[in-house]
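Below is how a single chain appears once it has passed through the pipeline. First comes the sequence as given, then the structure the pipeline wrote out for it. We keep one example in the README because the format questions we get most often are answered faster by looking than by reading.
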Amino acid sequence: MKSTSTSPTEVASEEEQYYDKISDLKAFDETKAGVKGLVDAGITKVPRIFFSPADEFDKVSDPGKNEFYVPVVDLDGIDKDPILRKNIVDIVRDASETWGFFQVINHGIPDTVLEEMLDGVRRFYEQDTEVKKEWYTRDGSKTVVYNSNFDLYRAESANWRDKTYCNMAPNPPSPDELPKSCSDILVEYSRKVRELGRFLFELLSEALNLNPSHLIDMNCAEGLAILYHYYPACPEPELTLGASKHADYDFLTVLLQDHIGGLQVLYQNQWVDIPPVPGALVVNIGDLLQLISNDKFKSSQHRVLANNVGPRVSVASFFTTGLMPSSKIYGPIKELLSQDNPPKYKETTVREYSLHYNAKGLGGHSQISILLSFRCPA
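Resulting structure:
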């Protein structure tokens, strides 16, 4: 659990009269070097802009309580044994309804590809800063968007990480539109994770007692954005977070994380670790899948702790068309509705919901509270 021995609020109160947040944010942003630039400069104290507010669920664990473990689903042989497939669908259904998270192993993406993708992330962030600056932008319409904290000027506090966003589908970029340090593996990994995503949508469709192609036919697998992150070692990890508490805005996320750990999901009002499993990928339900499943599946709050041993690297594959213009409307799936299960949400486009999400940023109230603004009147 995240330590609460030092209160960022108490530290801040002593310096508040000297603190100009906007100036500090601009100064940090204008370096175009991100959090890694701070670490490379030898910083020994976490700047005030990164101080995370206290979280109500940060409390000492009760040793009397049972330990919780996010389900790990073995997909080996699933297409050869109908009974095994049914059992796996049952596990996926239960995990999606309760955790909103599960891990998959034997998913068909070779370990060599996973390792090369992580190595590609390291190559990108550890190259010369002047080379990286070519990609640094806050223009979300770009094919590649590298910066630190997409919500830097909106969030309550900045996160101790750098991020790069690449739109890989439905209009895949050419390799020369991607950073040379990782372009080849980005293309290969994206192709393989799209294949896995389509298969996962089949399992999730079956878990909703729908035709296996239902979610694919709804174009849930149409868009893909790859977000690769770099979490440098932090000199005071108790004061900040690698990623603030949030739920994902997409239909589904497939996450590749390295061996360091730090990912946590909020489960039964407790922060539960999702430890790295060799060769595994973490899968989690996004807000839009919660919407169209009419709350059958759960888009859970999660976060990443800062660490003092990093860098930690991860690659999140978001199945969404994001801000891409589209007239397609999404609402609760009609086949799931009944007199006892009326629609809980109004219809929306992916772009409309993504704009809401981006305007809010990470942290603070659950994004579900914004989804609830789409609720149908009683």
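The CA atoms of residues 95 and 306 lie 26 Å apart.

See the next section for the split statistics.
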